[in-house]
Design goal:
By secondary structure, the protein is α/β, with parallel strands linked by helices. The protein has 2 domains: 345 residues, 3-Layer(aba) Sandwich (Alkaline Phosphatase, subunit A), CATH 3.40.720; 188 residues, no CATH class. It is built from 19 helices and 23 strands. The strands form 6 sheets. Strands 1, 2, 5, 6, 7, 8, 9, 19, 20 and 21 form a 10-stranded mixed sheet that branches. Strands 12-13-15-14 form a 4-stranded antiparallel sheet. A 3-stranded mixed sheet has the order 16-11-17, with no helix packed on it. It is globular, with a radius of gyration of 23 Å.
């Protein structure tokens, strides 16, 4: 079979690609669309990186692989643990390919830490806590890469004190990832190669407000200076894409994103709204907690990011302990029926008796509570515009199916046109329910502010190669369809318990007739050994990374 190369472009969207292709500015994408099949790729609900990438990896919905957000409840407690690849249920497609004798190269795919022992190479993505964490398989490959390319840049997010320095770091990180791609493509033989670039996600989160006139507080000078940042990054990505197309010759090519992107106008402090509606109660926390909050905010505002890094290394684990104390001391659990957490979207959890340590909602009251809460959410209006803020409220069993359903949120809120983001965290009780998305926290560093971009469910999918229809737009594709389609292209049976399907509409009928998709046995080998994979210091490193990405405060 021909080799298959998959290129993941985190948050890429046809909303930007389409007009730029029409203007002749993206020749690589134009070539793919003209010579192959393409269309929007529906993400998960919610369109967040951990569940979306996990669904890509396994071909299954979150109800089967168990990853719903950047964090998960520690069983039997209110404590939150960071999600990582080791918590994912279900076999990865590269595990299936390795078992079938295919040689694989897997690079920078989120939710792949710790690395699996594959038939080839696996370098973990942003859930790896650091360069000393054993994130590369085989381990000796890291020294080889650093000998050839210099220090490995695992820190998959930039930090900066201004939009100029932030953008400079995004570009430097992309340059390293481009050099890494070239090196690994030529390093040895492979049947399946995948690399994920996350820089489009970073630049869209951080610079959308410079392109959208609805953000009226942007100085005109900054708008002129940074208004092309997003399109410039698409052009840089397109240049590398064209180079890879030339390098790969007649190999089969898949280009896709885990979700799309678009503007985000406001942040909604959902726990504050829950308090006003009588679903949640805050505690006073005592004087000690107030002093801790004041000290925490003062340090964050006065110490630059590099100083915080030094402090974190000198006192490993301290930040995590302080954070937990601040977050989990906010609520009076004895009077809280519902609470929220989740970033860019809202997940609501019922404080159910028997499930949580201080659960107050009886099983008999569960359904009536969800019905009343759903009605209240659908009636929520933006006080500035008078328009409804919520487009839809989902029950978990409406969107998820599988053995991991019990750990899913009870309700999922989809904001109108995805123009809002939610931000649960400590000190919610002193915020307005609706605030500008450009200043979601009390920190002064530019890189810690919520920017004007947010995720959308409409990602991209493009296929070019053997058996693929030319210049064909396909509809109804989903992120869970990528794994079975790539397995099919490599002539490996698709496990019967995958929720995704082969994208048959992308292939010529004669090709499908000559080699119809084959079904194999169920692939769910269960979660890898569940353990506290991160040390305290590594957990602090992950905290800083996710905060830099804007996913946690």
């Amino acid at each position: 079979m021909k080799r298959v190369c998959a290129i993941g472009l985190d948050a890429a969207t046809f909303d930007i690609i389409g007009p730029m292709v029409a203007q002749g500015r993206l020749p690589g994408f134009r070539r793919l669309m003209g010579e192959g099949a393409w269309g929007e790729l529906r993400s998960t609900i919610h369109p967040l990186s951990p569940p979306a990438w996990s669904s890509f990896i396994t071909g299954k919905n979150p109800g089967k692989h168990g990853i719903y957000d950047f964090v998960v409840h520690k069983p039997g407690s209110y404590e939150l643990l960071y999600t990582y690849g080791g918590l994912r249920r279900g076999d990865s497609m590269w595990r299936l390919l390795s078992a079938a004798g295919k040689k694989v190269v897997v690079v920078n795919v989120p939710m792949t830490y710790p690395p699996e022992e594959v038939n080839g190479v696996l370098i973990s993505g942003f859930d790896a806590p650091g360069v000393n964490s054993g994130f590369v398989y085989p381990p000796q490959l890291l020294a080889e890469i650093e000998r050839e390319l210099g220090p490995y840049q695992l820190r998959d997010y930039p930090q900066g004190e201004s939009p100029a320095t932030f953008l400079d770091q995004i570009q430097r990180l992309f340059d390293f990832q481009a050099r890494l791609t070239r090196y690994l493509l030529r390093r040895g033989e492979w049947d399946f190669f995948i690399i994920v670039f996350t820089l489009l996600d970073h630049v869209q989160h951080a610079y959308w407000q410079y392109t959208d006139p609805r953000f009226t507080d942007i100085p005109e000078g900054d708008r002129k200076r940074f208004g092309q940042a997003i399109e410039d990054m698409y052009e840089r990505v397109d240049g590398l894409l064209g180079e890879m197309l030339d390098e790969l010759g007649d190999a089969n090519i898949a280009v896709f994103s885990d979700h799309g992107a678009g503007p985000c106008l406001k942040a909604v402090f959902v726990n504050k709204w829950l308090e006003q509606r009588g679903y949640l109660a805050y505690g006073n926390g005592g004087g000690g907690l107030s002093l801790l909050k004041a000290a925490h905010f003062r340090i964050k505002n006065l110490v630059p990011w590099w100083g915080l890094e030094l402090l974190k290394r000198a006192l490993p684990g301290l930040r995590q302990k302080v954070k937990s104390k601040l977050v989990f001391s906010e609520f009076d659990w004895s009077r809280t029926k519902v609470f929220a957490f989740g970033r860019e979207s809202t997940n609501l959890f019922v404080n159910l008796a028997g499930k949580f340590p201080q659960g107050v909602v009886a099983e008999a009251d569960y359904e009536p509570l969800l019905e009343r809460l759903t009605a209240d959410l659908l009636a929520l209006k933006d006080p500035e515009t008078g328009e409804k803020a919520v487009a839809r409220v989902y029950r978990r069993d409406e969107v998820y199916q599988g053995e991991c359903l019990d750990s899913a949120p009870d309700l999922l809120v989809e904001w109108r046109d995805h123009l809002y983001t939610s931000w649960p965290g400590y000190d919610d009780q002193h915020r307005e329910i609706f605030e500008s998305s450009l200043k979601h926290s009390d920190y002064s560093d530019w890189s810690q502010l919520q920017k004007g971009g947010n995720h959308r469910p409409n990602g991209i999918g493009l296929l070019k190669g053997e058996g693929v229809r030319r210049g064909c737009e396909i509809r109804g594709s989903r992120i869970i369809d990528m794994a079975p389609t790539l397995l099919y292209w490599l002539d490996v049976p698709v496990p019967e318990d995958m929720d995704g399907r082969v994208l048959e509409a992308a292939f010529e009928p004669a090709y499908l007739k000559g080699r119809p998709p084959r079904q194999g046995a169920a692939s769910d080998s269960g979660a890898r050994e569940r353990r506290d994979i991160y040390t305290e210091e590594q957990s602090a490193a992950i905290t800083e990374r996710l905060r830099g990405l804007g996913y946690i405060d």
